[in-house]
Design brief:
about 425 residues, alpha/beta, Aspartate Aminotransferase, domain 1, Aspartate Aminotransferase, domain 2, 2 domains, five-stranded antiparallel beta sheet, globular, binds pyridoxal-5'-phosphate, Met_g_lyase_put, PyrdxlP-dep_Trfase, PyrdxlP-dep_Trfase_major
Length: about 425
């Protein structure tokens, strides 16, 4: 027994009892997650087989990295798994934001307009979009126009607004699959497919970009299989499988992927250059593990939703809702509850459990953010982590868990923390 379990003997027992009950209640949801993980695992293995992945592909190149076969095959395996013409998977993408930035700068030219149809994009993209004349080389600073159509109060798309916002200049449509830091539903791949179909029937020459962060392998298909021209994601989220140490990917049409590649390196060079150093094995093996780990994390999210709902908090998605990303939002309503929760998640980590996170002004974010990130990969959020901007109504976004047992432990420790601070009351269980 650990210290935490010993110190809170009776409370811990009550929580375990609750957990058992909730696990029984959600077992159908767990089964469905397992089934998706299994199918996606097979899909990844089959792509590896088709491209004859071999030990020598893991070696990694130096210098220019010309003719790095491991890199070329990894791109093909990703393209195959995502049902896309092409992909670019690189450790040189410094983060998800950098990857998305390369994608957008690749697709857009001065005078064009980017239109986000799923409301305000993820916080870190606001500065990529920027303002005209901001002097930072943002999209708008370069003369790319920007517009966004807010979601309707029910979380749906405002099609009247979208039709009105489409102009001659609209060149790229932006769609964000995951809720990010918004209290809305994420969009399933089928919903994204419908959006793409509709927007392309309104304006056939637009290209559709999908921010796929946190979505990979939560469903059986990906947005590239329902008409997205380009998608992007981070390797320290789902597809890196907890092993990739850094990087991002784009996938889509040959032309769109090439456009992004010219932004990552240089026009004319694109994906032909770029030493992979020692990153190859972790990227391959991470992709191999990803479907299973995404399944573990999803079960953790469902468990968290069930537990917090049981204790009277509102969660999104509800445990019963189908999942299309890893993020579980829980609305705490008060800053102290939120902070106690995030600190509890940190306390449950295998790495850095002894540090106590505090809100800070993180670069790229507009409110102070508190983060629990006791992770092997810094900021890796397929690992159990929680983020929360300190703003009303004090919603925590938790995600990840390389094992279900860790995610479950995190929820139990966070609840212990809330109870000990007198913020949540749990009736002792009667044996
Ligand atoms: C994480 C995330 C990003 C940005 O990725 P970083 O790696 O944090 O830069 C963008 N969009 C969404 C939806 C995300 O979840």
């Amino acid at each position: 027994m650990s210290n935490i379990q010993q110190e809170n003997g009776e409370l811990w027992e009550s929580l375990l009892q609750l957990a058992e009950e909730e696990e029984d209640r959600v077992h159908e949801a767990f089964r469905s997650i397992d089934r998706t993980a299994e199918r996606n695992q097979w899909k990844v293995i089959e792509a590896f087989k088709r491209h004859k992945v071999s030990d020598y592909h893991f070696a990694g190149s130096t210098g220019y990295g010309y003719n790095d076969r491991g890199r070329e095959v990894l791109d093909m395996v990703y393209a195959d798994v995502f049902g896309a013409e092409a992909a670019l998977v690189r450790p040189h993408f410094a983060s998800g934001t950098h990857t998305i930035s390369c994608a957008l700068f690749g697709l857009l030219r001065p005078g064009d307009e980017l239109l986000y149809i799923t409301g305000k994009p993820y916080d870190t993209l606001h500065k990529v979009i920027g303002k005209p004349g901001d002097g930072k080389g943002s999209l708008q600073d370069w003369g790319v126009g920007y517009n966004e159509v807010a979601l309707l109060p029910d979380g749906g798309l405002d099609w009247a607004g979208i039709e009105a916002a489409l102009t001659e200049r609209t060149k790229v449509i932006g769609i964000q699959r995951s809720r990010g830091y918004d209290w809305r539903s994420s969009f399933t791949v089928q919903q994204i497919g419908d959006m793409i179909h509709r927007v392309k029937s309104l304006k056939p020459d637009v290209q559709v970009f999908v921010d796929n962060c946190y979505g990979e392998f939560t469903e059986l298909t990906e947005p590239t299989q329902v008409g997205a021209d380009l998608i992007a994601g981070s390797l320290i989220k789902n597809p890196g499988g907890g092993l990739a140490e850094t990087g991002g990917y784009v996938a889509g049409t040959q032309k769109a992927v090439e456009a992004a590649s010219y932004r990552l390196t240089a026009p004319g060079i694109g994906g032909e250059v770029g030493a992979m150093l020692g990153t190859m094995r972790s990227m391959y093996q991470g992709l191999f593990l990803s479907p299973h780990l995404v399944g573990q994390a999803l079960k953790g999210s469902v468990f968290a939703a069930a537990m917090f709902e049981r204790l009277g908090f509102e969660s999104k998605p509800h445990w019963r809702e189908p999942r299309t990303d890893l993020i579980q939002a829980v609305r705490f309503g008060q800053a102290d509850h939120l902070i106690a929760f995030v600190q509890g998640i940190q306390e449950a980590a295998a790495v850095d459990a002894h540090v106590v996170p505090e809100p800070w002004d993180m670069p790229g974010y507009e409110n102070p953010v508190i983060m629990a990130a006791g992770t092997f990969i810094q900021g890796g959020s397929l690992e159990l982590s929680a983020d929360a901007p300190i703003r009303d109504p004090y919603i925590a976004y938790m995600q990840g868990g390389l094992t279900y047992a860790h995610a479950k432990y995190g929820v139990l420790i966070a609840l212990t923390n809330l109870v000990k601070k007198g913020l949540v009351v749990i009736k002792p269980h009667i044996t």
